[in-house]
Design goal:
By secondary structure, the chain is an alpha/beta fold. It is built from twelve helices and seven strands. Helix content is about 45%, strand content about 10%. A hairpin with a 6-residue loop joins strand 1 and strand 2. Helix 7 runs antiparallel to helix 8, helix 7 runs antiparallel to helix 10 and helix 8 runs antiparallel to helix 9. It is extended, with a radius of gyration of 35 Å.
């Protein structure tokens, strides 16, 4: 530390200059201290904020933590009738077993009249083994023209890949629906079916299916663009060593997935082309706004969670009333089928009036003020679903459609190449659309 100068040896002018320098230094340190205190206060205020959880924010459920608690002993429930597995509606075969002797006295009952007393199923899977057909094409020399001839391969048994369509569909289903890696998938075929398939052969199966799934995805996209309502959302994916985004565009019985390097408006514009739907449903991400020709519905579930966060942060005026209002709006949407159009218009008028009254409340808490600003920004997009029965009040359908993508990302760490990511998007489009249309992943219609 530098010792202070000896003021006894300084002249009057030097003392004045030193005082001026010290005053300037004090002013500089005072301003720096004020900045540090302001930053410290902001950090302390941030430390006092509640943690963001899946219940009060858009934090995914996988990142939530359940608090430890003492085990609770539940009271014994009311007894209920026993349940059993119902008999299979279409058994492969039936066996009618007649009694040969009485289990009480042991005499023969072969000639006695017997009726069905009990029926049950015995379910088993057959031995899993590859069905291999060896095709041998014969040929020879034509006696007429002396040229070599060869038999024409039967339909469905042409030369090329030895793996048939059912086996290919099984591999694709396990890979993209159950997120099984190539190494484990190869081992599964070897251990359960007794068929050795290399990882390279599995990759070739995927590569060969690209055109078929791309063609089906284009049909799904065309069906979506022919409608009047679209919903969208996105989640992160990993392609190579970069972060990409998996988008879903869907409504009703169709869903189309797109994997893109970013989450900008260019993705939506590339999917829509020149088409613009009448209504759009999404969260408040800027790249998903302002695409509808008529109106936009923002996700009320997101806003309910944000209101819960403001309540956890300490707001007791605006956020509790807003959460109650939005929950009532969702409850009305759940029973729209039983309500007349006039009733829905009345509800819309009541909800608008109550929301206007809430926005006029005096805001005393920072979290409440921030939430009120958010609501004012999306005010006109809150109750669009009351004017159109086909518009949902939340974007939960998009999040449910993206959930398998999130699971796939966590299990497999996604893709090494862009073509694999695009193929996954096409396959997810076909599988999700098939699920919505009650068609199995292998093309079997249920119900």
């Amino acid at each position: 530390m530098t010792p202070p100068p000896d003021s006894s040896s300084l002249s009057s002018a030097e003392k004045e200059a030193l005082i001026v320098a010290l005053l300037a230094r004090i002013e500089e340190l005072s301003s720096r201290l004020a900045a540090v205190e302001e930053e410290n206060a902001a950090l302390r205020a941030k430390l006092n904020l509640p943690p963001k959880t899946p219940d009060n924010s858009s934090t995914p459920p996988s990142q939530g933590r359940k608090a430890s608690g003492a085990p609770m002993s539940k009271p014994k429930g009311k007894p209920h009738a026993g349940a059993h597995r119902p008999l299979h509606p279409s058994p492969t075969r039936k066996r009618d077993v007649l009694a040969e002797q009485c289990q009480h006295c042991g005499i023969s009952v072969a000639g006695a009249l017997q009726a069905a007393c009990e029926a049950y199923d015995r379910i088993e899977i057959p031995r899993m083994a590859p069905d291999v057909t060896r095709v041998t094409l014969h040929g020879g020399t034509c006696p007429g023209c002396a040229k070599r001839f060869k038999a024409v391969p039967p339909q469905g048994f042409e030369p090329g890949s030895p793996f048939g369509p059912n086996l290919r569909a099984f591999a694709l289903y396990l890979r993209f629906t159950h997120a099984i890696s190539f190494e484990r998938l190869s081992r599964l075929f070897s251990d359960l079916i007794g068929l050795d398939i290399s990882e390279g052969a599995l990759v070739n199966m995927l590569d060969d299916s690209r055109q078929a799934f791309a063609r089906q995805t284009s049909l799904i996209r065309a069906r979506l663009l022919a409608g009047t309502i679209l919903q969208s959302d996105e989640t992160s994916m990993r392609v190579g060593k970069k972060n990409w985004w998996a988008w879903v565009f869907h409504h009703a019985d169709s869903a189309c997935f797109v994997i893109h390097p970013n989450r900008s408006r260019a993705v939506v514009e590339g999917f829509l082309g020149t088409h613009r739907p009448d209504f759009w449903v999404s969260d408040r991400l800027a790249s998903q706004m302002d695409w509808a020709k008529k109106d936009h519905q923002v996700c009320l579930a997101h806003l309910i969670r944000e209101a819960q966060y403001a309540i956890d942060a300490g707001d007791s005026v605006f956020a509790p009333a807003l959460r109650k209002l939005l929950q009532r709006a969702c409850a009305i949407a759940a029973r729209r089928e039983q309500l007349a159009d006039a009733t829905l218009r009345t509800y819309a008028y009541q909800l608008d009036a109550k929301l206007d009254a809430l926005l006029r409340l005096t805001r005393s808490h920072a979290a409440g003020r921030k939430l009120q600003v958010v609501i004012k920004g999306c005010r006109r997009f809150l109750f669009v679903f009351l004017a159109n029965r086909a518009v949902p009040p939340t974007n939960n359908g998009s999040e449910q459609a993206l959930r398998p993508c999130v699971i796939f990302r966590k299990v497999t760490n996604c893709f090494r190449s862009q073509w694999a990511a695009n193929l996954y998007a096409d396959i997810r489009s076909v599988i999700e659309t098939a699920r919505r249309r009650a068609i199995g992943a292998l093309g079997v219609r249920h119900g």
